[in-house]
Amino acid sequence: MSKEIYLTGDRPTGKLHIGHYIGSLKNRVIMQDSGAYDPFVMIADTQAFTDNARNPEKIRQSLTEVALDYLAVGIDPAKTTIFVQSQIKGLFELTEYFMNLVSVARLQRNPTVKSEIAQKGFGESIPAGFLTYPVSQAADITIFRATKVPVGDDQEPMIEQTRELVRAFNNAYNTDVLVEPVGVFPPKGQGRLPGIDGNAKMSKSLGNGIYISDDADTLVKKVKAMYTDPRHINIADPGHVAGNVVFTYLDIFDPDKQRVQDLKDHYTAGGLGDMKLKKHLIDVMEAEMGPIRARREVFAKDIPAVLSMLAEGSERANAVAEKTMKDVRHAMGVDYFN
Ligand code: TRP
């Protein structure tokens, strides 16, 4: 029996942070290693151009950074097809055909796109490609006939849009060549790692992120700067756990849940200092991120090898995509000369 296909990806607009790692990359590796899937992981450079059209150098540089982040966390090119979106020409073709099956009004209702538009301050100058990127994302997913899409909660509207487009396509051309995917979302309460400043979103523009590639000293510095409880002034004062970023991180990074509970009790009662608590967080984070960082450094020594890995993955992905496109063209009746 053939394995279920999952597909997911990331825009190359910078290095990936530990929010990506906790919310998505870690789960991809677990799914990859389960052996139950045929995984595809895509560096979404075409999508990155939708809001970085005039910054190709950033995309080009981020491409290798993201690939290194993948390899470092254990996405294994022997098990996962790691590829680059722009190299799959069928994606442009399928996107163009999908474009006619969705209304402008429907695109304008996408809540994730809406909030991104507000946040990026496009004003009256929303790039057409940005408004329509969910259509291109639907092509990403369906061209590989992926049934599962492991993503963060913010991507839910994209999956819904994809499902609608699959139905619209199959209906319009009286076919069943495309399959409806489902999203695989992080477990509740584990979806999003806050920034070190306590902001719910970790992002480059807010400068509150910890990166997979951060060295040990940077990790220490960032944890020491982490937002805790402003009311906890003296060590003896009772502290608060809710909204305290150090505890949010401990909940995720400390494998010993009983120990975390004991620390929470101690902190709440008073007598546990922030510095001592942060030292412990540094230890448990370093235990997880240290080996990842070390692997990244090894891969970073041979960038040409990383690029040929991506080239091979793209070739493999292209072969799969072309098979679907043959069926798509046939269903639409545009295979005139065959
Ligand atoms: N929109 C995704 C993000 O910003 C990246 C992406 C592009 C993607 N194409 C995809 C994710 C297809 C899942 C499936 O992170």
From TrEMBL:
Domain of life of the source: Bacteria
Molecular function GO labels: ATP binding; tryptophan-tRNA ligase activity
Pfam families: tRNA-synt_1b
Enzyme Commission identifier(s): 6.1.1.2
Signal peptide: none
The reaction(s) this protein catalyses: tRNA(Trp) + L-tryptophan + ATP = L-tryptophyl-tRNA(Trp) + AMP + diphosphate + H(+)
PROSITE patterns associated with the record: AA_TRNA_LIGASE_I (PS00178)
Listed GO CC annotations: cytosol
Keywords in alphabetical order: Aminoacyl-tRNA synthetase, ATP-binding, Ligase, Nucleotide-binding, Protein biosynthesis
KW Transcription regulation (keyword) present: no
GO biological process, one term: tryptophanyl-tRNA aminoacylation
Matching InterPro entries: aa-tRNA-synth_I_CS (IPR001412), aa-tRNA-synth_Ic (IPR002305), Rossmann-like_a/b/a_fold (IPR014729), Trp-tRNA-ligase (IPR002306), Trp-tRNA_synthetase (IPR050203)
PANTHER family reported in the protein's UniProt record: TRYPTOPHAN--TRNA LIGASE, MITOCHONDRIAL
Family: Belongs to the class-I aminoacyl-tRNA synthetase family.
UniProt protein name: Tryptophan--tRNA ligase
Organism name: Leuconostoc citreum
Organism phylogeny: Bacteria, Bacillati, Bacillota, Bacilli, Lactobacillales
